[in-house]
Amino acid sequence: MFRKSTNAADSMTIAPGMAMISLSAIALGAAFGGYLPLIALWMETLEVSFQKIGIVSGTSALGIICSAYFAPQLTQKYGYVVTINIGLVLAAVMTVLFRYTENCAAWLAIRFAGGLGIGLHWVLTEAWLANIVSDHGRTRVMAIYATGISVGFAAGPAIIWLFGFSTPTPFYLIALFLLVAAWPIYRLRRHEPKAEFSSGGSPLLLIRRAPTVASACIVAGGVDLALINLVPAMVARSPDAEPVLALALVPAMALGTMLLQYPIAIVADRYGLLKVSIIVATTGLSLCSLIPFFLDSIVIAIGIAFLGAGLVYGLYSIGLAMLSKRFANGEIIAANAGFVIIFEAANLMGPGIAGVLLDINIRLGLPIFMISIGVFYLVISWVRLHANPDE
Questions:
Q1: DSSP reduced 3-state for 200
Q2: Among candidates 298, 337, 104, which has minimal Cα distance to 205?
Q3: Half-sphere exposure in the Cβ direction for 126 (13 Å, CA)
Q4: What CATH number should be reported for the domain holding residue 348?
Q5: What's the CA dihedral at 201, 225, 96, 109 to 10 degrees?
Q6: Among residues 128, 163, 187, which one ends one of the domains?
Q7: Vertex 129, ends 110 and 92: CA angle to 5°?
C-alpha cells in the first residue's frame, strides 16, 4: 500500500493520486452538473410531463446505488483503473444515446446504465483516496476532492449557456467531459492501490460500525438536493420574495460549498472530526432554516444560503475523513460503497419529505425539515462523542 510513516513520504505518495483524482473529479462534476439541467430542458421541449422528467432524472440514482453495491467485486477482479474507466466510457455512451431516442422506457434504461458508470467512479475514487491518505491532513485531502467536484458541478451548466439544449452538441460535449475524466485515472495505472476484497457494498456496514458517518451522509445527502430543487420554487411562490433570489440562491449555495470545504477541513483536523462535525451541522442547518424568513432581503438571504449550504456540505468531507480513519484495506471499498448508497438514498428521500412539509406550510416547511434532520444528527453524534471522546 501507499501508507508511509513520514510526512515527506506521505506527500510523495499522496501527491500523484490526489492531484489526478481531483482533476478527474472536476471533469466528472462538470459533466454531471451540465447533464442534469440539460436532459430536463431537452425533455421539456418534447412536452414531456414534469412527473416523467422527475422519474427519468432520478433513475440514475438507482444505477449509482447498484454500482456501489457491486463495486468491490468488480475492483477485486479488474482493479481500480480499469473498473473506473469502463464506467466512465459507459456513462459517456449513454449520454449520447439519450439524445437519439424519445422513448420513455429507453430513457429509463439509459439513465440507469449511465448511473452505473458514474457510480463506479464515485465509489472507487473516494476509496482510492482513503487508501493512500495519511492520518495527518486526512480531512483536507477529502475536502480538496469534494471541492473539485463542486467546482465542476458549478461550471457544468455553462455548456448549456454556450451551446443551448436543442441540438445534440451539448450531449457530445458532456460525453467528452466524461472521457476526459478517464485520462487522469489512466495516468495512475502504475500507482493504483491493491484491491483487497472483503464484502459487497452495504449501508449496513456503516450503520453498524460507524453510525456517525452514516448519519453525516444522511444529512448531507438529504439536505443537498432538497435545497437545490426546492428553494427556487419556494422563492417563486412566496409573494414577498425578491424574484432575483430564484436564480441567485443556488449559485450562492454552490459557491459556499466550494469555498468553505478546505477551511472546515483545517479546523476539523485541528480540533477533532466529530466535535467539529457537530458544530458544522448545527450551525449550517440553523442558517438554512432561516432562508424562508429573509426572502425579502437579497443580501441576507444570499449570505445565509452561502454559509448554511457550505457548512452542511462540509459534513460530506468530514464524513469521508471519518470513514477512511475507521476502515482500511479490504473494508474501505465496501464501506465507501455503503457511504454512496446512503447518500443517494438520502438524495432520493430528502426532497420528497421536504416537499411535503413545504406543501403544508411554505414558510415553516423548510425550517421544520432542517431542524428535524439536525436533531437526528445531534443525538447520534452526541452519543458517539461521549462513547469515543478522542474522535
A1: coil
A2: 337
A3: 35
A4: 1.20.1250.20
A5: 60
A6: 187
A7: 20
Gap between the Cα atoms of 385 and 359, Å rounded = 36
Per-residue cell: 128: 482510492
Which residue do the cell numbers 447520534 mark? 380
- How many CB atoms are closer than 10 A to CB 6? 9
**Total count of residues recorded for the chain:** 391
Q: Last residue of some domain: 135, 161, 187?
A: 187
8 Å CB contact between 126 and 320: yes
Residue 210: left if φ>0, alpha if ψ -120 to 50, beta else—which one? beta
CA trace torsion 212, 332, 135, 307 (10° rounding)? -50
Q: Has residue 80 been placed in a domain? A: yes
Contact 374, 285 (CB under 8 A): yes
Do 104 and 149 reside in the same domain of the chain?
Answer: yes
Q: What is the pLDDT along the chain (391 residues), one digit of tens a residue?
A: 334 433 433 444 455 677 888 899 999 988 887 887 788 778 878 877 766 776 787 788 888 888 888 888 888 888 889 999 999 999 999 999 999 988 889 999 999 999 999 989 988 888 888 777 766 667 788 888 888 888 887 788 788 888 888 889 999 999 999 999 999 999 988 887 776 655 555 667 778 888 888 999 899 988 887 887 778 778 878 888 888 887 788 788 888 988 998 899 889 888 888 889 999 999 999 999 999 999 999 999 999 999 999 999 899 889 888 887 877 666 777 788 888 888 888 888 888 888 888 888 988 999 999 999 999 999 998 887 766 654 5
16's CB contacts (< 8 A; 6+ apart) are 188, 191
* Structural domain of 128: 7-187
